[in-house]
Amino acid sequence: MANYLYDLNPVQYIIADAIGQPGQRTFFLQARAGSQLVSVVLEKHEVGSLAVSVLQLLEEVEKMHSGSSGPVRSKKALQPEHPVDPLFRVGQLSIGYDEDKDKIWLIAKALMVNEENQVVDPGRDDVPGVRFVASREQMRAMSEHALEIIGQGRPACPLCGRPIDRNGHFCARTDGQAMPIIF
Question: Phi, psi (5° rounding) for residue 71?
Fold first, then answer.
């Protein structure tokens, strides 16, 4: 059995969200189990990958449980608790399904660097980790909310695909012409 800083089994809620303005947002994963509130920081692409991976896992699980009523959509609006005080920045995420308990688990391991500024292998026992155990419905709601939050970011330039800031965007694909593109 692995050793975790926090083992939120089961969570009361779990959310992937962001704070700050588009272009300067900090993405995080937060969950509560009883008096334990845990937040960890992720990159935007990690939140997106997590959401898609969870939805894919749920699709596979629902195929295994063909007698179940199918995907359940959450109607409850998810809101993080403030202040968001992250425990660590995530270096590795793992997800899985416990068929006996019909729960999805998610393990977040810290991003750590050693004295030589090299990333420490997250598989080591001394790397801090948190385990979140949630129902399929909770994980679906977390994933759908995460994809909504990601979609609220800066629009992409139709020419180069890079994000457009509020003050505009100087696109390299305008043949050397420094034309601001503002949406």
Answer: -65, 135
- Topology of domain 6-151, per CATH? Secreted effector protein pipB2 fold (3.30.2450)
Q: How far is CA 125 from CA 118, 122, 132, in A?
A: 17, 8, 18
15-19, 111-115, 120-124, 171-175: lowest mean pLDDT where? Answer: 171-175
Question: What is residue 96's DSSP assignment?
Answer: E
Find all residues with CB under 8 Å of 117, minimum gap 6, and list them: none
The rounded distance, in Å, linking the Cα atoms of 9 and 169 is 45
Of the candidates 159, 134, 148, the residue with the CA atom closest to the CA atom of residue 27: 148
In this prediction, residues 84-100 reach a mean pLDDT of: 95
Bridge partners (DSSP) of residue 110 are 90
Domain residue ranges in the chain:
6-151, 155-183
